[in-house]
Design a protein that fits this description.
The chain is α+β, with helices and mostly antiparallel strands. The chain has one domain (11-140): Dna Ligase, domain 1 (2-Layer Sandwich). The chain has four helices and seven strands. It has helices spanning 11-18, 35-40, 63-79, 133-142; strands spanning 22-33, 49-50, 53-61, 92-98, 101-108, 113-118, 121-127. Strands 2-3-1-4-5-6-7 form a seven-stranded antiparallel beta sheet, sandwiched between helices.
Length: 152
């Protein structure tokens, strides 16, 4: 894992994401963690957990929706000035399969951080602005997938 968060995706991450055979967008519950699962989870083995967070729903994205997802995430990362908060309350996840590997992102727009995993290994932490959140929420809501409530 790289030292500290950065405000760009590695070339490997971008390449795997763009060549993905399939992409899923997930709605996560930020406070429903199963720590024992998070550390030992077979990345594809538990349909109700995603890197330890409870899955509220998932949607396979394709075509123009997949392109939009890629565009807004990359824009949010490139807009970042590198600042992060100390929380990590992820409400979104992305799973891509590429070249026989699982490529996961666990996203917290509240603290402006994305944890990136390849298979069983966390490979990087990337900073992001909140700008992609509305688009991801709209995609999920249009498919009837619930969103976790925001803490006010």
């Amino acid at each position: 894992m790289a030292e500290g968060p950065k405000d760009f995706f590695s070339e490997r991450s971008k390449s795997l994401f763009h060549r993905a055979d399939g992409i899923e967008l997930l709605s996560l519950h930020p406070s429903e963690m199963r720590p024992t699962v998070r550390e030992t989870l077979d990345p594809g083995g538990d349909p109700v957990a995603f890197r330890g967070w409870m899955v509220l729903g998932r949607l396979r994205v394709e075509g123009t929706t997949q392109q939009l997802l890629l565009q807004v995430l990359e824009a949010g990362v490139s807009e970042s000035d590198g600042r992060v908060a100390r929380c990590f309350n992820p409400r979104h996840g992305i799973r891509a399969t590429s070249d026989g590997h699982l490529f996961d992102m666990v996203i917290c727009f509240e603290c402006f951080s994305i944890l990136v995993f390849e298979d069983r290994t966390k490979t990087e932490i990337v900073t992001v602005t909140g700008s992609p959140e509305l688009v991801l929420n709209n995609i999920l809501e249009a498919a009837g997938i619930p969103l976790a409530p925001k803490v006010t």
